[in-house]
């Protein structure tokens, strides 16, 4: 355990960094699924990320409808968060700058799994508590999740109005974390307890 000042610094870096990283990653995902641009939350995300993305897009063009610049920005933000956390935790001695590129990729992958897992949980709870809600956040989450749920919904048998596809997706995400993330962490030598993604 470090000093209270170090702990406070780690808390601030993790909290602020996670929020920025989440917003940047949401920009990438919402553009990927062609979510409603006029949704007030979409507008907030665009306004927040434009100052960082517009200069980056001059250097990194899109690729087949994929917003590569926002993905590169997300990896860059994750890399910066990791660097700051390690500097605060170790005093900045011998940071593994090259290895941290791989760690940043794993952090983005973990964040992706987290976004979809918690999104599915929110949708499931909202379908019980507020079915048919027109809340802008719920509309955006549904637009984000629909491309993932739709193919599974087609495969599952009719359960008399009960939609089990979100639960299947949540189970799939947890399996992917076990089968993909944990082996990657071991292969890349990511220190245990290092905060990745969200």
Automatic annotation (TrEMBL):
InterPro entries per the UniProt record, alphabetical: CCB3/YggT (IPR003425)
Keyword Transit peptide on entry: no
Name of the protein in its database record: YggT family protein
Membrane-spanning intervals of the chain: 12-30, 68-89, 101-130
Keywords: Membrane, Transmembrane, Transmembrane helix
PANTHER family for the chain: PROTEIN COFACTOR ASSEMBLY OF COMPLEX C SUBUNIT B CCB3, CHLOROPLASTIC-RELATED (PTHR33219:SF14), YLMG HOMOLOG PROTEIN 2, CHLOROPLASTIC (PTHR33219)
Source lineage: Bacteria, Pseudomonadati, Pseudomonadota, Gammaproteobacteria, Oceanospirillales
Family note: Belongs to the YggT family.
Top-level taxonomic group: Bacteria
Naturally occurring in which organism (per UniProt): Thalassolituus maritimus
């Amino acid at each position: 355990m470090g000093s209270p000042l170090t702990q406070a610094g780690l808390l601030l870096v993790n909290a602020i960094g996670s929020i920025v990283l989440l917003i940047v990653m949401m920009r990438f995902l919402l553009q990927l699924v062609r979510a409603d641009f006029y949704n007030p939350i979409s507008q907030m995300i665009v306004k927040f990320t434009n100052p960082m993305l517009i200069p980056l897009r001059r250097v990194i063009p899109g690729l087949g409808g994929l917003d590569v610049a926002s993905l590169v920005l997300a990896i860059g933000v994750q890399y910066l968060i990791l660097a700051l956390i390690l500097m605060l935790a170790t005093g900045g001695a011998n940071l593994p700058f090259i290895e941290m590129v791989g760690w940043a990729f794993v952090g983005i992958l973990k964040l992706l799994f987290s976004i979809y897992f918690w999104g599915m949980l929110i949708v499931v709870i909202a379908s019980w508590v507020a079915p048919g809600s027109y809340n802008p956040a719920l509309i955006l989450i549904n637009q984000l999740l629909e491309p993932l749920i739709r193919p599974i919904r087609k495969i599952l048998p009719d359960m008399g109005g009960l939609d089990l596809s979100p639960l299947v997706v949540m189970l799939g995400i947890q399996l992917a974390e076990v089968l993909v993330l944990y082996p990657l962490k071991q292969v890349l030598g990511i220190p245990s307890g290092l905060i990745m993604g969200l």
